[in-house]
Amino acid sequence: MHEHALARSLVRQVLRLAAEQQAEGVSRVAVRLGALSHSDPETLRAHFELEARATIAAGAALDVAVTEELLELALESIEIERFERRDDGALPS
Question: Residue 2: is its pLDDT beyond 90?
Fold first, then answer.
């Protein structure tokens, strides 16, 4: 249950940042996972995948670095996607 809450909070933060950047997709998310988070990278990835489905972060890779320096979870970076549009507003084929 704890991992589910961590992943939900992480996805919300990623989506907020992506919206601020007018992203159309999120391809990668990097986080640092604290030693006292009571979670492991694989479990966090599984919960992140569930929480991100049906959002612009669906399918994004989650890079997790475990550290003794943190208590919980810290978002390090996100990689976003923007699709170029043609002059007529359509996406390129």
Answer: no
